[in-house]
Structures are given as C-alpha cells and as structure tokens.
Design brief:
about 450 residues, alpha/beta, seven-stranded parallel sheet, Saccharopine dehydrogenase
Length: about 450
C-alpha cells in the first residue's frame, strides 16, 4: 500500500476547513472549535487549509481569542492546484469548503473529493454551480462513495427544514398546496451582509443563461403531485398582515434547492437508502418521509415598512440590470456599498453588527382540510398553517452553526446516509437529527398558528 493509499484509509483528520481565513471561514473555525474533543462530539481532529498559512494562523488566533490557540494543523492548499487538493482529500474524511464564489473556485474541490471518495460540504448559494456539480459528478460520486452536499448554511437549510417542518403539521386528511417563506432580517444596529453573498448574486445574474442551457441539456426531473391548482402569482408587493410584513419576491437559491429535494423525494418516496443502515433506521427513514407532503414553494423578503421593500426592489434592479454586462459587474463588485444602498461592503460587518443581527423566516402554508376537496375540483384552499424558523445573523453565525451540525452527522452517522452522490441537503438531512441539533444551538422552529381561511 502506497503512503497516499494508507492516508486515505486512515486519514489523520476528521475534517478540514478549506478557506478558513476568509470572512465566513474564520467564523466556521470558531464554531468548529466549540465541538472539538467534547464528549458527545465525533469531531476529534481538525485542520485548517488555504493558500496563506500566515493568514490561517491569524484566523485561528482570532477564533480563539482571548485564549491562546490550540495545536491545530495548518495545511497549504490552493483551488488552482489540483495536486494540493488531492493531497488534502487523502488526509481527511470530510472537507468543509468555504472558498467562494463557488462558480469560480468550487469545482476543483468537488472533483478532488469525488476522485478520492472524501465527503464534501459547502455553504454555496449558487444554483448554477450546484446543478452543474450534480450533472458532472453524481455518477462518479456514487461509485467512489463521496457524499457531496452543497447549500449547508443559511442557503438553504432553513428553507429545506422549514418547509419540511411546515409540511409535517398537515395531518391527514389535510394536505398543503403552497408554502410561501417570508424572510425578515433584523438588527439593533445596521444590517451589513456578507460580500460573498452579494458577489454570488451578481454572478448568478451573469450565469442565468448558462443555468437554463444546463437544464435544457438534462432529462426532466420528476414533478411531485401537489393537490389543487398552482397558487396565483399575486401582486409585485404583498402585505402579509398576519406576520406584519410588506414583501417582494426574493430570487434566492432556496426555491431551487427545495425543488431538487422534492424531485428526489418523488423519485424515492421513502428517501435514500443508507450505505449500511440497520432495520430500525430503515423504518425510521420510511416513517419520516411518509409524513412529508410536497407543496409549491417560494421565498419573499419582507420589511415592516413599505419603504424597506422599495429599497429591496431598487437593489434588485441594480443587480439585475448591471449584472448582465462585464462593465456593470465591475461596477457592482467594486462599489458594493453604493449599489446595495449600504447593505453590503467589501470589508464585511463589524463584530458588533454581526452580534446584533438576527433573522425570522415565516412559512405560510395554505391547503385543504381534506384531500378530497382538492380532488373534487375545489380551487381555493380552506386551511392555513403558519410556522417560523428564527435565529442569529445569517452569514456569520447561522451559517457556521448549520454547517458544524451537518458535519458531525456525516462523521458520526455515516452508515445511515447514502454511499455517495451529489445531493441537496434536505433529502440527506431531513430524517436525521439535524433540526434538533440546530435547535440546541440557537435556531428555533415554532408553530405560530393554524386557522381556517374564509371561503
């Protein structure tokens, strides 16, 4: 057995955080260290990786202040150097990729993980990247046993688990028809977003044509059977009185990721078979998915004032119009504070701004109190169930919390998960204890109301 094969068989690290010196990466490091070598955690060894060892050391020092950093391995790897990435994959069971934008830097990392059979999680919110990785690497990942799961941060776990949580409140014979998520960002100071999120949105506009081309080149996915007709489109600006928000459609990755999970669930109604799951886990998985009902899903961003919504629309227009040309993208990415009206800036938010921010994501489900009503041709839902997911700042606090609760599931419950493949998070983590884990770390799931709708 060669040295490389020996490393792959017995990797020295449970996980490696790639891009640990970036804005989000250093928060991921801080979150990981909370669970390193704790009694209930399968996380016993961590390494940090990136292009600049000095910056990685600084990130580690920042993550542990005011205490001295523990002896954590620092490894050099570059997304433009495939050999360094393959070397990285032989040293670990799992890569946490924080290097974005993923369209520019993500594929070499996925390719190295799939080649070596190493598992992979990222915090991507870029639909074109995620779907391209599935198209190119799913079959090989099935063979090599590499489990590749994107969108394991605020994009798109709250949406995935939030929809599943709302769906499970519809007890037979009741069935949902649509679930609309309303995102509200709140802060005691000012809201400042992650520049990487802004950059991903700009590149998303630039790659919209490539995404459509990719979808046309692939076989059509299975479509879930949803009782009743699709919901009406409604007006551009909506006032949701029950949750106190004005709202407008948010062109996020969440609906796309959710649709991928629902398509996979339509193709696999009992979920995905674990590589070595025991009969008890098989029954648990089947029972869980039998309670999840598909629904039309969308996301809107909300504000307590109409002026706030008009601000969302203005920023959306800047990104939508300027993101289509090279000159426009240069302006957006070099002057983010100007074109986002102060919401995004290159240096990111201060620690105070991060700690003072939070989110609420309301899930307004509408459907039928009895499935027979929909099958009889009734077009108007008569029941509404509202649930909510709520947590701290989305980019630097919620995202690391989610990522570092997904990771121990891959490390400690690997036998109950599929052997390999490229998947969205919902179909993998839905039947696991991920919701319970993130609830224990500051993200709540609540039932708000259940009421009859006027006829």
């Amino acid at each position: 057995m060669s040295k490389e094969e020996e490393l792959s068989a017995n990797p020295p690290f449970d996980l490696i955080i790639l891009g640990a010196s970036g804005f989000t990466g250093k928060y991921v490091v801080r979150e990981a260290l909370k669970f390193l070598n704790t009694p209930s955690s399968p996380l016993k060894s961590v390494a940090l990786a990136g292009r600049n060892p000095a910056k990685l050391a600084q990130a580690l020092q920042w993550a542990t202040r005011p205490h001295p950093p523990p002896p954590i391995a620092i490894l050099t790897a570059d997304t433009t150097d495939s050999q360094s990435l393959h070397r990285l994959c032989t040293q670990t069971k799992l890569i946490l990729n924080c290097v974005g934008p993923f369209r520019l830097y993500g594929e070499p990392v996925v390719a190295a993980c799939v080649d070596s059979g190493c598992d992979y999680l990222d915090i991507c919110g870029e639909p074109e990247f995620m779907e391209r990785m599935e198209t190119k690497y799913h079959e090989k990942a099935l063979e090599t046993g590499s489990l590749v799961i994107s969108a394991c941060g605020f994009d798109s776990v709250p949406a995935e688990l939030g929809l599943i949580f709302n769906s499970r409140q519809w007890v037979a014979p009741a069935v949902p028809n649509s679930v609309e998520a309303y995102l509200s960002l709140e802060s005691e100071r000012r809201i400042v977003g992650n520049f990487g999120t802004f950059e991903s949105a700009v590149l998303g506009v630039a790659n919209a044509d490539k995404l459509q081309e990719l979808r046309r080149s692939r076989p059509r996915r299975a479509r879930p059977v949803i009782p009743g007709p699709p919901p009406p489109k409604g007006s551009l600006i909506e006032h949701q009185k029950k949750i106190g928000l004005w709202a407008v459609k948010l062109p996020s990755a969440d609906p796309i990721v959710v649709r991928r999970t629902l398509a996979l669930l339509t193709e696999n109604p009992q979920g995905l078979l674990g590589v070595n799951e025991n009969p008890e886990l098989t029954e648990t998985r089947k029972a869980f998915w039998s309670t999840v009902k598909p629904a039309h899903f969308g996301v809107k961003i909300g504000s307590k004032s109409l002026l706030g919504v008009l601000r969302f629309i203005t920023v959306g227009m800047f990104i939508g119009l300027l993101g289509k040309t090279a000159v426009g993208r240069w302006l957006l990415l070099n002057f983010p504070s100007v074109f986002s009206l102060g919401w995004f800036r290159k240096k990111g938010p201060s620690e105070d701004e991060v700690q003072s921010a939070s989110f609420k994501m309301w899930f307004v489900g509408r459907g039928f109190s009895d499935n027979r009503l929909a099958s009889q041709g009734n077009t108007k839902p008569d029941l509404e169930i509202i649930t909510r997911v709520m947590g701290p700042e989305i980019g630097y606090l919620t995202t690391p919390i989610i990522l570092l609760q997904c990771a121990p599931i891959l490390l400690g419950q690997r036998d109950s998960l599929p052997k390999g493949g490229v998947y969205p998070p919902g179909i993998i983590f839905g039947p696991t204890d991920l919701q319970k884990r993130i609830q224990e770390n500051g993200i709540s799931f609540d039932i708000i109301s259940k009421s009859n709708l006027p006829s």
